[in-house]
Amino acid sequence: DVKVTQSSRYLVKRTGEKVFLECVQDMDHENMFWYRQDPGLGLRLIYFSYDVKMKEKGDIPEGYSVSREKKERFSLILESASTNQTSMYLCASRRGLNYGYTFGSGTRLTVV
Amino acid sequence: AQTVTQSQPEMSVQEAETVTLSCTYDTSESDYYLFWYKQPPSRQMILVIRQEAYKQQNATENRFSVNFQKAAKSFSLKISDSQLGDAAMYFCAYRSWDNTDKLIFGTGTRLQVFP
Q1: DSSP 8-state class, residue B1
Q2: Is the pLDDT of residue B6 over 90?
Q3: Closest-CA residue in chain B for A96?
Q4: What does the alpha-carbon distance between residue B21 and residue B19 come to, in Å, rounded to a whole number?
């Protein structure tokens, strides 16, 4: 089975800190995604990537950036964390358009 | 832009009974995919069932089935013979046939299963 691993299950950071959320998949998938999940809002797409060094903005990219230096790793970066970025962050990957998504177990980030 | 609406924030069902979760969506496209995902307390999203819009036949996966009404833009999930392990958040999601691979999610329905 494909595995998508998010490095931290829980994370607490201070306002203004630079935060890195890491996601690694082990099945050579081209496409990777970062979603944010909030109660009453569902999941919203932050950024996605089709290949190494490629990135596309999703619906809510403001305050975030991403990095994909290697195919298996897709990092979400909060340049200067703010309290409104307290949320659950979910990473996902897929091989291509005709394949299903595999999600990680999420990182619950609290910014204080 | 496409939207997905789940109007039931919470539902409950007794073990062994049947429950139906509602989902409606809005799109001007004729071809697309629809999904139901389950998110248990472990937080990992699991694909429950998938429907291609061009298929008239409703998808089924064991105890899970959908009622896909394309004209009404409705995509409900029926869980038969409910089990305690079915307790989770359920998300309905939409994806265009040929777009940039983006999933659009509803707000979710929390399902409780009582013994």
Answers
A1: -
A2: yes
A3: B101
A4: 7
Q: Let me know: does B4 contact B105? Beta carbons within 8 Å.
A: yes
Please, are residues A12 and A112 in contact by the beta-carbon 8 Å criterion? yes
Q: Does B88 touch chain A (CB under 8 A)?
A: no
C-alpha distances in Å from residue A79, one per residue of A16, A66, A74, A107: 8, 10, 16, 17
Q: What are phi and psi of B84, to 5 degrees?
A: -55, -35
Preferred mutation among A9, A103, A105 to probe B, highest tally of B CBs within 10 A: A103
Average pLDDT over residues B30-37: 92
The 10 Å Cβ neighbour count of residue A79 is 12
Closest CA to B20 of B12, B28, B29, B31: B12
Nearest Cα residue in chain B from A46: B102
Q: Residue holding tokens 């040929």?
A: B98
Query: Residue A70, class by beta-carbon neighbours within 10 Å (0-12 exposed, 13-18 middle, 19+ buried)?
Result: exposed
What is the CB neighbour count within 10 angstroms for residue A109? 21
Question: pLDDT truncated to tens, each residue of chain A (112 aa)?
Answer: 668 999 899 999 999 999 999 999 998 888 999 999 999 899 999 999 988 988 999 999 999 999 999 999 999 999 999 999 999 999 999 877 666 789 999 999 999 9
d(Cα B63, Cα A64) in Å, to the nearest integer?
40
